[in-house]
Specification:
alpha/beta, six-stranded mixed sheet, five-stranded parallel sheet
Amino acid sequence: MRKPGLVASDVDGTLLDPMERVSSRTARAVQRVVASGTPFVLVTGRPPRWVPTVVAGLGVAGVAVCANGAVLYDAAADRVLQSHVIDSLDLHDVVRELRRELPGCAFAVERTTDGAHDRPHEQFLAETGFRRVWPNADIRVAEVDELTGRPAVKLLVLHEHMTSAEMAEAAGAVIGSQLQLTYSTSAGLIELSAAGVDKATGLAAVAADLGVTQADVIAFGDMPNDVPMLSWAGHGVAMRNAHPAALAAADEVTTSNSDDGVATLLTRWW
């Protein structure tokens, strides 16, 4: 590949080390990319509120693709630029179907406000069972009617006795093309977005806005939610620690996230 016109990277398991930190080597590599005038775009399953810590570690800020492509977030201005939502009727129907198909599962939703820290109590709502298994300080516990009563950018489904792959297989048979289904961990959690929304569509929108062609994009990732992006980019790079699906979709494999795999490859040009 010739020198990329845009660098895109997943966050967890890819850009961050196993302790969820940005290494000094990775930060320096990304700073060289940006200093050269080449855009660097975070493309993550994380919501906007979980992006500022990554940006602080990198020392550079730009537009980030969040929530698996459902949200475009300007990290420099702390402003949500665009959101693709699942409407409330689809939320209601899918929750009902999955409750029947995956007994014992629990649900949560992600919603966006104007920025990462704007009205945080409105952003992440979950059932009691979800919080019990995943005790996250950001969660506001709510009844299912409140979860499904308004559109959301992401529906999360958790099951403490199944793997994510098992859940995805069972859920996919029920949901079909109604929503976009993926996962970014193997620990019994699947993530659903509006139909047709994934990391590739989010990254494509950013690239088009910046005037960068698909062929000139290099993208890094490690999990099934990265597969659309790795397949779409002119050059898709999987981490050595990647899920088999990401490895199969990639044009190249770099070293693991514990060995600064993103920085290792970027030194080819910067």
